[in-house]
Specification:
By secondary structure, the protein is mainly alpha-helical. It is built from five helices and no strands. The relative contact order is 0.08.
Length: about 150
């Protein structure tokens, strides 16, 4: 009878990775539930657990360290604020990475709008400089005629 207790988990039909994965998912579910009840320490553990992967996702999309850091913070703020609506249909990290992905895409759109605005401002400045030069030349020609 004691020899059954000495068998490794795989002989019982369990793999160690499944046991660890199941434990991690249970731990995650407890942290999410506590966070949903307003437990900031539980949420801080979730942040610590998923911060690096969230940053890496944002960085792969944005290709800028500072923006990826900002989006990572924005993601966790949005997750904290959105926790009451988290239904648990997907695992927490899946939901979190979707938030990070959407925040990153929103940042790319903002970057595109900022560039378009900068281009428009530069074009207007160039037009104003050209107009000013043309007016200056016209006034010099008019003075020369007089």
């Amino acid at each position: 009878m004691s020899e059954h207790l000495l068998h490794p988990p795989h002989s019982l039909g369990l793999s160690l990775s499944n046991v660890v994965s199941s434990y991690t998912e249970q731990d995650e579910a407890l942290l999410v539930d506590a966070s949903k009840r307003g437990d900031q320490d539980a949420f801080a553990q979730l942040v610590q657990r998923y911060q690096r992967r969230t940053f890496n996702l944002a960085f792969r999309i944005l290709q800028q360290y500072d923006e990826a850091s900002e989006i990572t913070q924005e993601t966790f703020l949005a997750a904290w604020q959105g926790l009451p609506s988290f239904r648990g249909d997907a695992r927490f990290p899946t939901w979190l990475y979707r938030i990070a992905y959407n925040c990153s895409l929103k940042q790319l759109e903002q970057r595109k709008r900022d560039r378009a605005l900068q281009d428009a401002i530069q074009a207007e400045q160039l037009l104003m400089q050209t107009t000013a030069r043309a007016l200056n030349l016209c006034s010099k020609h008019m003075i020369a005629r007089v």
